[in-house]
Amino acid sequence: MSGGGHGAAVHIEHCGKTFADGTRALEPATLAIARGETLVLLGPSGCGKTTMLRIIAGLELPDPGGKVLFDGKDMTSVPIERRNVGMVFQSYALFPNMTIAENIGYGLKIRGMAKPDRAARVAELVALTGIAGLENRRVDQLSGGQRQRVALARAVAIRPRILLLDEPLTALDAALRERLRGELNRLLRALGITAIYVTHDQAEAMELGDRIVVMRKGAIAQIGSPREIYFAPQNRFVAEFIGAANIVETTVEDGRLVLPGGRLSINGANNLAQAVAMIRPETIGIVAPGNVPLSGMIDSVSFVGDRQRLVVSGAAHKPLTVDAPNTIDAKAGERVGLLIAPEAVRLLPPET
Amino acid sequence: MRDRLLFAGQLLFTLLVAAFLVVPAGLSIAAGVTVNYFRGIQSGVTLQWVVQVWDLYADTILLSFIIAFGTLAVTLLAGVPAAYALHLRGGALSRMIEEIITLPVAIPGLALALALLLTYGDFSEFRRSWLFIMVGHVIFTMPFMVRSVMAVFATIDVKTLDEGAASLGASPWRRFRDVIVPNAVPGILAGSLMVVTLSLGEFNLTWMLHTPLTKTLPIGLADSYASMRLEVASAYTLIFFIMIIPLLVAMQRFADRGQVK
Q1: Is A69 exposed, middle or buried (0-12, 13-18, 19+ CB in 10 A)?
Q2: Residues A211, A307: one domain?
Q3: Domain count, chain B
Q4: Which residues have C-beta within 8 Å of that of residue B201, sequence separation ≥ 6?
Q5: How many Å apart are CA A300 and CA A217, to the nearest integer?
Q6: Is A79 near chain B, with CB under 8 Å?
Q7: Does A85 touch chain B if contact means CB atoms closer than 8 Å?
């Protein structure tokens, strides 16, 4: 076992999963996760992300031909209890028959650690996760956020080579989820451990992931850093799943998109006759009409505090969503010009 | 006013139904301590019938308890792991096995006993021992243990708990001992209560399987009804009540405490 506190590198080779009833949960996938990296598996429910995590954990066996390697060593048929992975479950899976300290120390007890050492390690972890003072409580006396911290402390107590997190924040309310997300991020960076994080929440994925694997219908749709995924989606599904996106489908003339509200210059479309393009709402500027080639009519204005969201019709075939600064004065029914830099328009492959 | 009338009516009805069920038990107990039941209670109160029953049938009472707790031991050792395995595996095969385990509840005890006699009747040592009766009781009571434990498993998401313990490095046996069994305690207690009481009162199967030397309490009761004075049989019922009610109360208390925790 190498890597010290930084965990193991994980390789998944041609891992697919077909369940006994014939449903294909995961198309054969190949993926390499570097030592110490935080990889997020992101996608809507039923996309195969949890199945992939469970294969890495050793809770599911991949279909024949699939392989899971930790630091180059084949672990495919090794059961979870001998993989030395830490796992945080969506429902936390805390043991109701044990106190909080016993829960956190359980993996250490299994490993035969002496009682005083165990107590010291538990004390270290309750301090790290901010739950000191709860050691002698029972699981049902804890709030959701506290339980989540206990589950995390229990999983990292055993100094696992890989930390696996299956939607760990999904069961919590929005405000708490956001706070814990920050804490979790700092903790993962501090531990420097290899972590694989499953979520359907793109904000979580963006904040926590060194890289994000976007999944759809059992297959990998795109792998990349949060910036790559956001700014350079490779297909329409990724573009629409991550953040808000205006998708424009139209003809091209002289390297410009032909739209009902005008022409829009873009990059890299000189040889195209037809294009599918993505424009993020925050990259569209609102200016006086007539100054720019593209204009439309404001349908609605929603003020959301840090910005205002406008819906502009008549510019493209479908209404465009625009995130404008909260300082400009925009009213429904007003005619406005839309300023879109050519580099803000991302061409997508036509949908097959 | 109408509400009060309604309430009074309901109360009266409930009391009547309760009386319908309680009076026979009371009469039977009274008969057990009456000198002559046909002359009524004015013939005097006596404990002679109780003493006579104890002299004649003490060994059947003892054997009943041995068989009941033996049955409990077997259903615990086999039933709890079986419930765990069935719950974890799930699927059609597990369903089928569960149904097969439950089948003896629906099949007449006489038919089960007949099958046991046909198959094992020639193993004379076994046939003559109380173990033969215990086997019958295990077959009959097993579904009650397996089902109550599985019911608890269904409410506590035992599969995730098991996976949680496995992720921390626990072997299947450690998981079972440290996590599964302690969390299944309410179901195990409820199942135990059922198994012990069913075994103590079982008559159908036992009637077919018993020998003159392996009589249980209900068999002795039938025996005394058939061959002795009504007062003796009633005294026997009294003893049955005295034995089983404290046991039931104790186990119920135990089960309640387990649940509160």
Answers
A1: middle
A2: no
A3: 1
A4: B218, B244
A5: 35
A6: yes
A7: yes
Instruction: Please check the confidence at residue B252 and state whether its pLDDT lies above 80.
Output: no
Residue B49 in any domain: the answer is no
Question: Under 8 Å CB-to-CB from B184, ≥6 apart: which residues?
Answer: B80, B83, B84, B149, B152, B153, B156, B158
Position B61 scores a pLDDT of 86
Q: Does A91 touch chain B (CB under 8 A)?
A: yes
Query: Computed from CA positions of residues A337, A340, A346, A349, in that sequence, does the dihedral angle turn out positive or negative?
Result: positive
Residue B234 lies in a domain: yes
- CA–CA distance, A16 with A2 (Å, rounded to integer): 28
Nearest residue on chain B to A60, alpha-carbon basis: B163
**Gyration radius from chain A CA atoms:** 24
> Is the distance from CB of A165 to CB of A57 less than 8 angstroms?
no
Claim to verify: residue A226 and residue A287 sit in the same structural domain: no
CA distances, B135 to each of A260, B139, B149 (Å): 85, 6, 21
Q: For residue A245, give every residue at least 6 positions away whose Cβ sits within 8 Å of its Cβ, in sequence order, or none.
A: A233, A239, A278, A279, A280, A281
A139 alpha-carbon distance from chain centroid:
29
8 A C-beta contact, residue A18 and residue A44 = no
The answer to whether A205 and A213 are in contact (CB under 8 A) is: no
Domain range for A251 is 244-348
Contact by Cβ (8 Å): B60, B217: yes
Residue B46 lies in a domain: no
Question: Crossing angle, helix B217-227 and helix B48-74, to 10 degrees?
Answer: 150
Q: How far is it, in rounded angstroms, from Cα A193 to Cα A188?
A: 7
pLDDT of residue B66: 92
For chain A, what is the domain count? 2
**CA A183/CA A187 separation, integer angstroms:** 6
Q: Which of A155-169, A193-207, A225-239, B84-98 comes out lowest in average pLDDT? A: B84-98
A23 part of contact set with chain B, CB < 8 Å: no
Query: Do the beta carbons of residue B184 and residue B152 sit within 8 Å?
Result: yes
Q: Contact A85/B183, CB-based, under 8 Å?
A: no
CA A57 – CA A59 distance, rounded (Å) = 6
Are the beta carbons of A216 and A51 closer than 8 angstroms?
no
Instruction: Tell me which residue in B163, B165, B182 faces A59 most closely, judged by beta carbons.
Output: B163
Task: Tell me whether 0.95 is exceeded by the ipTM.
Answer: no
User: Which regions of chain A does DSSP assign to beta strands (E)?
Assistant: 10-18, 24-33, 38-42, 67-70, 73-74, 85-88, 162-166, 194-199, 211-216, 219-224, 246-253, 256-259, 262-265, 274-279, 284-287, 295-303, 307-313, 320-325, 335-340, 345-348
Check whether residue A96 and residue A182 sit in a common domain: yes
Contact A97/B166, CB-based, under 8 Å? no
Question: Is the Cβ–Cβ distance between A158 and B169 less than 8 Å?
Answer: yes
Q: Which helix (H) or strand (E) holds B141?
A: helix B130-156
Q: Last residue of some domain: A182, A210, A239?
A: A239
Residue B189, in any domain of the structure: yes
Q: Which of A81, A82, A84 to mutate to test the interface with B (most CBs of B within 10 A)?
A: A81
Among A102-111, A289-298, B243-252, name the one with the lowest average pLDDT: B243-252
Whole-angstrom distance, CA of residue A340 vs CA of residue A316: 13
* B173-to-A60, A71, A112, B26, B166 alpha-carbon distances in Å: 20, 29, 16, 50, 10
